[in-house]
Design a protein that fits this description.
Elements lengths: L1 H38 L6 E3 L1 E5 L3 E10 L5 E2 L3 E6 L6 E2 L4 E5 L2 E6 L16 H12 L13 H14 L13 E3 L5 E6 L6 E2 L3 E2 L1 E3 L2 E7 L11 E5 L2 E5 L5 E2 L2 H11 L4 E8 L3 E7 L4 E2 L5 E4 L6 E3 L4 E3 L2 E4 L7 E3 L2 H4 L7
Parallel strand pairs: 8-9
Antiparallel strand pairs: 1-25, 2-19, 3-14, 3-18, 4-12, 5-7, 5-11, 6-10, 7-8, 10-13, 14-17, 15-16, 15-18, 19-24, 20-21, 21-22, 23-24
Length: about 350
C-alpha cells in the first residue's frame, strides 16, 4: 500500500511537472522569437492627404456691461408746446421729443454729442454724425464723409422746413437736437412737463441703467480672418474679431436674456463659413533638430517643408494645397534621415 501510494504520488508529481515543462518551453520559445520578430523591417505606410473642415470653435468667457443712467439735455430756449415722450418711452434717432415754441426738437444717437451748429464748409467727426442723422431721419445728406457740402446743406434745409425752423435755413442748430447717448434711451423719470420753460442745459428726462455691451474674453491671436459669430445659450450673433465686445442693442439684449440674472457666462466663437485644411496624422509630421517642420511623400523622397495651421489630438492641419498628395505615415520607423533641410 505504501509503495502504491508512493507510485501514485510520483505519478501525480510527474503529471504536474510535465505540463509546466511544456508551458515553460512555450514561453521560452515565444521569448526567443520576439526579438527576431521585432527585428524584422517595418514596411512604409503611404497614403493620401485628406481634407477636413474647421470652424475654429473656441470657448470664451463673456460678461454683461451696463451703462450708467443718463440725463439728456436740450439747447433750446422757450416754452414746451408739445411733449412727445413719457415714462417708459424710448428715445432714439428721429424721436420727436417735444416742440419748443412750436418747433420740433429731435433725438439722435451718436458716439459723442455735437458741439457746434452744422453749417456749410466745416469738417469733422461731428459733421459725420450730423450727416448720418439727417440720412437716417429721411433727409439724404450724401456720403457721410465729415465734410459739410452742398448735399449736407440741402438735407439741413429740408429738415429745418419739416420741423419749423424756416424755409431755406442752411444751419442745423443744436437747439433742434438732443443727444440721447450711443443707443436708444428709455425714459425712467421725466424732468420736464408740458408748458414748462426750458433753457440751454435743461435736463429733459433720466434713464435707468441700461445694457451697454457684452464683453468677450477673446484669446489674443487665436481668431483668423473671416466672419465670426458668438453663440450663447442658443443665441447666435455677429462678432468682430479683436473687438472684445458686442454693442448692437438687439444682440446685447438677446444674449443678456439667455443669462437671466447672471452677469457672466460662457459662449462659443466660431467661423460662419468653415475653412478647408489638409489634415494629417501627427505621426507623419517631423520636426528636426534645427526646428524645421516637414513631411515626406515616401520612404525615399525629399522632405516637404510645411507650416502647421492648427490641429487637434492626433492630427495636424496644413495648407489645403497639399490635399490629394501622397504621404508617408511612419517616417520615424522607416527612414534613417529625418532632417527637413
Amino acid at each position: 500500500m505504501n509503495i502504491k501510494n508512493a507510485g501514485i504520488a510520483v505519478g501525480v508529481a510527474l503529471g504536474i511537472v510535465i505540463p509546466l515543462g511544456v508551458a515553460a518551453g512555450a514561453v521560452l520559445f515565444v521569448a526567443e522569437q520576439s526579438p527576431l520578430e521585432s527585428a524584422s523591417p517595418l514596411a512604409p505606410l503611404v497614403g493620401t492627404i485628406e481634407s477636413a473642415q474647421r470652424d475654429n470653435q473656441v470657448n470664451v468667457s463673456i460678461g454683461v456691461e451696463a451703462a450708467d443712467a443718463v440725463a439728456p439735455v436740450t439747447a433750446a430756449d422757450g416754452i414746451i408746446t408739445t411733449l412727445g415722450i413719457g415714462l417708459g418711452s424710448e428715445a432714439t434717432t428721429g424721436t420727436r421729443l417735444m416742440d419748443v415754441d412750436a418747433r420740433g426738437v429731435v433725438a439722435y444717437e451718436a458716439d459723442a454729442p455735437l458741439f457746434r451748429d452744422i453749417v456749410r464748409g466745416i469738417n469733422g467727426a461731428d459733421v459725420t454724425s450730423a450727416q448720418k442723422f439727417l440720412t437716417q431721419t429721411g433727409f439724404p445728406a450724401g456720403i457721410a464723409d465729415g465734410k459739410a457740402g452742398a448735399a449736407t446743406v440741402k438735407a439741413i434745409k429740408a429738415f429745418n422746413l419739416a420741423y419749423g425752423y424756416g424755409k431755406n435755413n442752411p444751419v442745423l442748430s443744436l437747439a433742434s437736437l438732443v443727444w440721447v447717448g450711443t443707443g436708444p434711451a428709455t425714459v425712467n423719470e421725466m424732468s420736464v412737463h408740458l408748458g414748462d420753460q426750458v433753457a440751454p442745459g435743461t435736463a429733459l428726462f433720466k434713464t435707468g441703467s441700461v445694457l451697454a455691451a457684452i464683453t468677450v474674453a477673446e484669446p489674443p491671436g487665436t481668431l483668423a480672418s473671416g466672419d465670426w459669430v458668438l453663440t450663447v445659450g442658443g443665441v447666435t450673433v455677429p462678432y468682430e474679431p479683436g473687438s472684445s465686445r458686442i454693442t448692437d442693442s438687439d444682440s446685447v439684449a438677446a444674449i443678456a436674456a439667455t443669462l437671466g440674472t447672471a452677469t457672466e457666462g460662457v459662449g462659443t466663437l466660431q467661423l460662419v463659413t468653415p475653412i478647408t485644411v489638409a489634415s494629417v496624422p501627427s505621426s507623419a509630421v517631423v520636426t528636426d533638430s534645427a526646428g524645421r517642420i516637414c513631411i515626406f511623400a515616401s520612404a525615399e523622397s525629399s522632405p516637404i517643408p510645411v507650416e502647421p495651421t492648427g490641429g487637434s489630438l492626433g492630427t495636424i492641419d496644413l495648407d489645403p494645397s497639399l490635399v490629394g498628395q501622397p504621404l508617408l505615415f511612419n517616417p520615424r520607423e522607416v527612414r534613417k534621415d529625418l532632417t527637413c533641410g
